[in-house]
Amino acid sequence: MEFVREFWAYMATRKKFWLLPLILVLLLFGGLLILAKGSVLAPFIYTIF
């Protein structure tokens, strides 16, 4: 949790709020790939990329 707090403080100090959607999208795609690793949908998800 400390990392999230420090990252938020960095964004607030430097006015880099545009980084937040980028980080969220990367986390979403990473989570999707991890969840789909062993599923039947994996070949279809990998074709998106």
Count, helices = 3
Number of E strands: 0
The SSE string, one letter per element, is HHH
Low-confidence stretches: none
Mean pLDDT: 84
> How would you characterize the largest beta sheet?
none
- Radius of gyration (CA) equals 15 Å
Structural class: mainly alpha
Helix content: over 70%
State which percent range the strand residues make up. Answer: under 5%
Describe this structure in words.
With 49 residues, the protein is an all-alpha fold. The chain has three helices and no strands.
Task: Please give a quick description of this structure.
The chain is an all-alpha fold. The protein has helices at residues 2-14, 19-35, 42-48.
Topology, element by element:
Layout: H1 2-14, H2 19-35, H3 42-48
What keyword list fits this structure?
elongated; 49 residues; 3 helices; mainly alpha
